[in-house]
Amino acid sequence: TLVGFCPELDWKPLSFVKPIPPNKVCSACGLVRKKTALLPCVHVLCDSCYEQCAQDGVHVCPLDGYQWNDEDDVDWKDFPLVQLLRREVKCWNAERGCQHVAAASMITKHFHSGC
């Protein structure tokens, strides 16, 4: 599920033809956001989950309890909107027989006018 990219796609279930790379998916909440943090323990957190893992001046991974206090140990990655919108997705009516595949940027138009 996407969050923070665009109103037409945010919080809507999307079935990507090629899966989103694991380094773009939060290991804690499972959401795909514009910015992710690769932690020293190699888990990935979205910016929202990352903010919640700070405890008394140290950060703690919610998945394995690994602790770090140096922000330089975290590798932040952006997921540009343009890159996301180019990815192909299946129509929201795929389970009802629609076989249309389109760039994420065009799926809403198809759903409202061509499906």
From TrEMBL:
Keywords: Metal-binding, Zinc, Zinc-finger. Residues 26-64 form the RING-type domain. It comes from Amblyomma americanum (Lone star tick). InterPro entries: Znf_RING (IPR001841), Znf_RING/FYVE/PHD (IPR013083), Znf_RING_CS (IPR017907). It comes from the Eukaryota. The keyword Endoplasmic reticulum does not apply. One of its GO terms (molecular function) is zinc ion binding. This is Putative dynein light chain.
